[in-house]
């Protein structure tokens, strides 16, 4: 069962907010009856009509996208900046990002039209590893990074322990490359964690999500996930 406005949005008729307006305006029917309740739940067996035209629920699709820096993790932007779905313009389904990557962060981002899939992967209780590689200011040392492995408080909230690996250091430039593995997805989490141990992030990239990597892709490119990859992701999330 899913909320009516969500079903309308996933069918590509309108955004979820616009779908709510259609419902309130009496333009939506469920099994022949006008419905104006925003909390209405419908199943795949229910007949949904907008302006007396039946809609169909799209088949779920799943994409892995190599997000470039300087792109918004959204389907639209009020400042007319480039958004991730601009790169998937030939995808006919109404897809949206699973979680987000910061504007200046590159790397692996998932997109789908499957609300349950998205909710499962982004729910705080589910633990799917996400691997980031950061170029930081300063010389990274194991002792300084150890607090990350015990968990710490960031902006008043406790974050779960992370795993780290120091990939390289450049004494002359006073920079380091650090790999950080987390399973949460809080706003600016990786940047804030590294800043808290004295290593401000200069450049950040997400290289892995569960078992998925960016292998074979360049920035701005994408590929569709297969059924096995989707099942493996959901399996890791629900463990």
Briefly characterize the structure.
Helix content is 22%, strand content 31%.
Terminal residue distance: 23 Å
The count of strands amounts to 17
What is the beta-strand fraction? 25-35%
CATH topology of the largest domain: Alpha-Beta Plaits
Question: Any key phrases for this structure?
Answer:
9-stranded mixed sheet, Alpha-Beta Plaits, 3 domains, 239 residues, 4-stranded antiparallel sheet, alpha+beta
Structure description:
The structure is a single chain. The chain has helices spanning 4-10, 16-24, 115-122, 142-145, 147-150, 189-196, 227-238; strands at 2-3, 28-30, 33-34, 41-42, 48-50, 53-54, 62-67, 96-97, 105-112, 130-137, 152-154, 157-159, 163-170, 175-182, 201-209, 212-213, 222-224. The relative contact order is 0.15. Helix 1 crosses helix 2. It contains seven helices and 17 strands. The chain is elongated, with a radius of gyration of 21 Å. By secondary structure, the chain is of the alpha+beta class. It has three domains: 2-54, Structural Genomics Hypothetical 15.5 Kd Protein In mrcA-pckA Intergenic Region, Chain A (Roll), CATH 3.10.290.10; 62-125 and 213-238, 2-Layer Sandwich (Alpha-Beta Plaits); 130-209, 2-Layer Sandwich (Alpha-Beta Plaits). The chain is 22% helix and 31% strand. The model has no long low-confidence stretch (mean pLDDT 92). The strands form four sheets. Strands 7, 8, 9, 10, 13, 14, 15, 16 and 17 form a nine-stranded mixed sheet that branches. Strand 5 and strand 6 (53-54) form a beta hairpin.
């Amino acid at each position: 069962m899913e909320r009516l406005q969500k079903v309308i949005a996933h069918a590509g008729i309108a955004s979820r907010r616009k779908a709510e307006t259609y419902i309130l305006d009496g333009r939506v029917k469920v099994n022949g009856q006008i419905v104006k309740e925003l909390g209405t739940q419908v199943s795949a067996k229910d007949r949904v009509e907008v302006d007396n035209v039946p809609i169909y629920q799209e088949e779920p699709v799943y994409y892995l996208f190599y997000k470039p820096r300087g792109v918004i993790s959204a389907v639209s932007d009020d400042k007319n900046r480039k958004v991730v779905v601009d790169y998937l313009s030939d995808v006919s389904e109404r897809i949206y990002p699973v979680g987000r990557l910061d504007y200046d962060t590159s790397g692996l981002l998932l997109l789908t039209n499957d609300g349950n899939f998205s909710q499962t992967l982004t729910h705080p209780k589910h633990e799917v590893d996400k691997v980031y590689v950061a170029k930081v200011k300063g010389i990274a040392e194991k002792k300084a990074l150890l607090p990350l492995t015990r968990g710490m408080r960031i902006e008043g909230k406790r974050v779960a322990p992370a795993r780290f690996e120091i990939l390289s250091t450049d004494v002359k430039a006073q920079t380091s490359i650090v790999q950080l593995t987390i399973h949460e997805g809080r706003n600016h989490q990786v940047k804030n964690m590294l800043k808290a141990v004295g290593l401000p992030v200069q450049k950040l990239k997400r290289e892995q999500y569960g078992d998925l990597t960016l292998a074979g892709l360049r920035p701005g490119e994408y590929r569709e996930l297969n059924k096995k990859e989707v099942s493996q992701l959901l399996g890791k999330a629900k463990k």
